[in-house]
Automatic annotation (TrEMBL):
Keywords, sorted A to Z: Signal
GO molecular function, one term: alpha-amylase inhibitor activity
InterPro entries: A-amylase_inhib_sf (IPR036379)
Domain of life: Bacteria
Name of the protein this chain belongs to: Secreted protein
Range of residues in the leader sequence: 1-26
């Protein structure tokens, strides 16, 4: 019975933290980067440093890219602020994925694991 109460308390605390607009915590407990929009933020584990991410901005759209340079395959997605993230892909070593969105109001926030 005590275990259920502890879990309920932890769950309620996490929900309150997310709904309060506090910065989300990354996989290793560090605060996430970016602006606090006052809304609940979804936790995303960032890709390792051997994954390279970049964005090309056009007049109307922008395309985010992620290249796996880790020596092994993994599931990756492009992370966008102010909207849905890109599709999750299984990415082999030395392969690149992309995700295209409208230029405004979106912002490239890097690459995440999924």
């Amino acid at each position: 019975m005590a275990n259920k109460m502890v879990l309920a308390s932890i769950g309620a605390g996490l929900a309150a933290t997310l709904l309060s607009g506090s910065p989300a915590l990354a996989a290793h407990g560090a605060p996430s980067q970016g602006q606090d929009s006052g809304r609940a933020q979804i936790l995303v584990e960032r890709a390792p440093d051997c994954v390279v991410g970049w964005v090309n901005r056009g007049t109307i759209t922008q395309t985010g890219y992620a290249q796996n340079q880790c020596g092994y395959a993994m599931r990756l997605k492009v992370i966008w602020a102010r909207g849905a993230d890109g599709t999750c892909f299984w990415v082999e070593d030395q392969r690149t994925i992309s995700s295209k969105v409208a230029k405004e109001p979106r912002r490239f926030d890097g690459v995440g694991l999924c």
